[in-house]
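Hi R.,

Here are the chain sequences for the assembly we discussed:
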Amino acid sequence: MQNDDLEFINCANVLKAIGTDLTQPSRAQIAKHLGLSRTAVSMVVKKLMAAHLISELETEKSGRGRPGTPLVLDGTHWHAIGAAYSSKLWTFCVVNLNGEPLLTHKEYVETTDQDETVKALLQGLGHVESKVNKPLLPGYGIGSPGLIDPKSGTVFRADDMGWTKPLPLKQLVEEATGKKAYIINRYRANGVAELTFGGHDLTKNIIYLGVGTGIAGSVYLEGTLLNSTKYRFGHMVIDPHGPLCGCGQYGCLQAMASEKALLTYARKRMKEDSTFLTAYADQPITAKLLVDLAEGGDPHAQSCLSYIASALGIAILTLANVIAPDEIVIGGPIGDASTFLVDEVRKAAYAHLLDWQVSSLKISKGSQGDYGSVLGAAAFLLEQKMELLLGEGCPVIS
Ligand SMILES: [Zn+2]
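And here is the predicted structure of the full complex:
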């Protein structure tokens, strides 16, 4: 291991000790927790305080032994800009390290054309930046549609946008702005927001499934995101005789439980049965309408959500048998909005699992709502704060 790497890791560990592992610890408590010398911890603390990442509380810790000054994260100094795309709309937000939004902004895009989409993104980033007079992390967190290479930040393809040629999004943003861009799938960003701000137990293994126009999932092992392009929950085959998916396979989870699957099922039932959702025959059926009706107790809308819940239940059965997570969160625009859906998914999954698997698997509803993706994109940038602010310049620890 390079010495620089070691210094960086020590800085990261001290920050994690203050933010997650310990409650308002003193320097001595951190030294004991990490097995480092007090001098080494004091040097790191000095560096982190100079970077406004941590601060001292004014009161001294009381109790036995020598009292020490309690240390806490400084959640209010630095701010991060996040952006996320959904349905011809870029949403932007500026948040502090506590995840509290300072402002939000929207930019509409007329088409799903790649150039127009990037143009609107750059316009929105410039606008938001001009409105903030707080210290900003020198970069952007961006929640994009599609399949993204985490290293190059290139969007390989996005079936629901009709993007079949690669879009070097990170490169385009960095060239235009001179700042670093961190690109993450928009549903994966929603998962980052859920895990960062949703009050989950980060010592556990958690899977997040975002359900919307597409389906994307994220795996968190003890709070760390497995950010690889090579796992694609939306394309788990649920039924090989099922509908054709944009990827070319039949019966993928995305083809059976996304917004399109929900609406296709509702329209099919309406065609077959003139009493089905009859009051809504003259208006466009949307996922939001079905979710709202189902939450209000409409049995027809509920049967549509139960249809996609059964496919999600089979997906969870497989995930539970392969990964055995402690918790699965059903989020995204549909999951976040529908308690009924999550109840149905729970029923469908538990029906297939053994009792001892059921007792150790919690299935919960996402909590981040409409701003989940953009908050997650900003949180994704916040995760890079050490690298952005300190680089490899942590003090030498001996
Ligand atoms: Zn597929």
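The two ends are 15 Å apart (CA to CA). Residues 89 and 283 are 23 Å apart (CA to CA).

Let me know if anything looks off.

Best,
T.
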